[in-house]
């Protein structure tokens, strides 16, 4: 857990400055006390990170804007549940955003399926290239080291799922591989990542 | 699905956190996490492991209309809650006449009692898990485990005072998993309780947090009745 906390801090320190985790946590404490000014300050601090994530996963500015509203309203409602999660502020916020995006993707996918659109319609042609390039430059060293020990296929599957919000079907389409093979790469990749990060 | 298999649960937790667990399986796993704290812990550990992948995503400033939309939604919620409170007050006024006799009995009970309920811990379904009472000087806590509580022999439930000023949580002791317990508070714990508006319960190893700070997930947070 200590290691995990330090990686969260490292993430925030890299992207926004060393004081951000403490600032985010203090603002969440104030949100739990129904201080709406704190929510506005929190929004100005984290909205760009959350919106970048939501835009990447949802691939629609309108949908990402709606999702960001959902996320901030949910943060306001649940801030009291955060209060004692010291050290996990950004993980908590990003997880709320990612899970909201996954919910919306599921609903969007249902609508598309009803219209019988091909699965490829939901796959971004540049996503696989992005997944190739995303490691080693900006993620933490511990995660980088462990990602570098995975096979290229495992790495790509993990990045497409986490960053793009792809289902395993969509990953199979994006990298032109059988679904069963993708599932196996994902399972083994995550298992190796866990072992490596805990060693 | 055999949820007894811990390795399988951890695999499902990884798929949940990375987002590939979808549809009915995702909803089933969410339901499991509501009462299986090991599953919830697994998800949180996977969230921590994977969070740095998000740092590769370029931040994008959202348009100003988003914040205005958030404000609008919060204002609408407040108006709805205000309306609901007004309705409750009217219902209370109607009920007041009927309640006079009951009130007299209750008042006598409260005046004759040396302790007051300062918080009741409920789960997401509003089932009551613990009742926490304290004497007026709040130098001890009397905690009763209620019927809806599911005992977890391999973990402890630890009670924390959450500082209103934003300081670290202060442990007040371990919650009973059945029956009653009386926690005598130290001076530091009494000060922490007096300075808190909320208490929290975290899941910890047997015997309580080894570090003096919450190490497991915070399962419940409740407001403390003013002293």
Textual characterization of the structure:
The complex is a heterodimer of chains A (199) and B (227). Chain A folds into 2 domains: 95 residues, Orthogonal Bundle (Rna Polymerase Sigma Factor, Chain: A), CATH 1.10.1740.10; 73 residues, Arc Repressor Mutant, subunit A, CATH 1.10.10. Chain A is mainly α and 199 residues long. In chain A, helix 4 crosses helix 5. Helices cover 77% and strands 0% of the residues of chain A. By secondary structure, chain B is an alpha+beta fold. Chain B has 3 domains: 50 residues, no CATH class; 53 residues; 109 residues, Immunoglobulin-like (Sandwich), CATH 2.60.40. Helix content of chain B is 43%, strand content 25%. In chain B, a hairpin with a 5-residue loop joins strand 1 and strand 2. The longest helix of chain B is centred in the middle third of the chain and has 49 residues. In chain B, 29% of the residues are buried.
